[in-house]
Amino acid sequence: MFDAKSLLDQFLGAPGGGQTGHRGGSRPGGSGDLLSQGKDFLSSQGGGLALGSLAGLMLGTKTGRKLGKNAVTYGGLALVAGLAYKAYQGHKASQQNAPRPQYPQDEPVPLDAPRGTAFDPAEQPGGENQAAVALLTAMISAAKADGHIDREEQDRIFDKIDEAGLDAEAKAFLMDELRAPLDLDKVVASATSPETAAEIYAASRLAIDPDHPAEKAYLQMLAARLGLDAGLVEEIELAVREAEMAG
Fold first, then answer.
1. Distance CA 199, CA 80 (A)
2. What is the reported pLDDT for 112?
């Protein structure tokens, strides 16, 4: 199977080449400006299209730009896992009338905390790559919610995919997912636990700014189908907003 983990990293603005995840070493230098990072990535790829920019075209999202250094620092899987874990902990504290966990303002996503828990993609059935496939599928499905990916846009996107230097399997995955009709059942079926359900919802929310009625309705339906508590959904939204503000 293609390297879905790296593809997800690139969708969310992390650099290519497998250098993903922050492991306690030095943070990437510079201001964290995504445009500069995108230029660096373009250079490192020999002029190929940065998939962070492709995601903006394909998904109609501002999230990559908003997340900025957080996407680059954490990598896609760790970012989504951290957001879902943070939301879960906040929801649990609220249910117990306990203080919400606090995180540094400039590092609002708890990267290390999910490791070894049910939120850790490495602990999920199929491992990290299968987890990344589920999240990518969820993101693309969410992008279809407002009906804006029409044939003309697909053709432009496919042209960009051709320019991106993806391997055949990754290219085929993206094209198949974009061509396929929106399939909520498929997205929901990839949730193998309450924790992965929260991650799938978080990834879907990252893919779009729900300012269109159809997008809001999609997220509401997704949350219901995933069996997420309303309080947890609110915590995921809060976690995403805090990550965007810190980006």
1. 6
2. 77
